[in-house]
Write a structure and sequence with these properties.
Layout lengths: L6 H12 L2 H8 L3 H15 L4 E4 L2 E4 L1 H21 L13 E7 L8 H11 L3 E7 L6 H4 L5 E3 L37 H6 L17
Parallel strand pairs: 3-4, 3-5
Antiparallel strand pairs: 1-2
Helix pairs in contact: 1-2, 1-3, 1-4, 2-3
């Protein structure tokens, strides 16, 4: 398998940002014909037109719209690898889109503070929250997201984990419930009660029984 030409990524980033062959050519310091040939190569590689004419101007295809932020992030990461690694990160001038996977019921507690912190310290940063129904590291490994917040385990040694908080379950029951009728609520007494299982995968048994 032939390795891809990574120089095309830089050209793709410019084309998607400018949404114009002529504008991209000026920004890249190339002739319009050279940038047009590059666009042809990109169309062959991606299997998508990327830029199509709509009236007097060019517009991005839906696939190109999906690639825009991802390409920007990849090119930014490439440049950071090749540039002086000792250069400090300057949040006020950072311009980047970060994708974060989340699980419902957890991240809503963090969103307001995170959004306010980004607006105050890094106004050029955009946050895109992606709902995730499946547990596992695949979203991070595939580069679909930069961050995941939730109940994470078995993520693999290549993924960095940091604990944000520890939580516990609290049971609420009516005074007339059998479990409230004196005595300690043991796992055996709890398991002996009737239970309702809610499962996204159609499972008919859970941790209790």
């Amino acid at each position: 398998m032939t390795d891809p030409d990574f120089n095309l990524l830089v050209a793709l980033d410019i084309l998607l940002a400018e949404e114009s062959v002529a504008g991209a050519a000026r920004r890249a310091g190339l002739s319009a014909s050279a940038m047009s040939r590059t666009l042809t190569r990109l169309r062959e590689v991606t299997g998508d037109p990327l830029l199509v004419r709509a009236g007097r101007k060019m517009v991005l295809t839906p696939h190109a719209q999906d690639l825009k932020a991802r390409t920007q992030n990849v090119v930014s990461e490439m440049r950071s690898v090749l540039n002086n690694s000792a250069a400090p990160l300057h949040l006020p001038t950072l311009e980047q889109t970060f994708y974060s996977a989340y699980q419902r019921g957890i991240c809503r507690n963090f969103w307001p503070a995170l959004i306010c912190a980004c607006a105050a310290q890094a106004p050029g940063v955009k946050l895109n929250f992606v709902a995730k129904s499946e547990k596992g590291p695949q979203f991070l490994r595939d580069g679909n997201v930069d961050l995941e917040i939730g109940v994470l385990k078995n993520m693999g040694p290549e993924i960095r984990l940091q604990a944000l908080f520890r939580d516990r379950f609290v049971g609420v029951l009516a005074p007339t419930h059998p479990l409230a009728q004196g005595g300690q609520i043991t796992p055996e007494r709890y398991a002996a009660c009737e239970h309702v299982i809610v499962s996204r995968h159609g499972m008919v048994r859970g941790p209790v029984g």
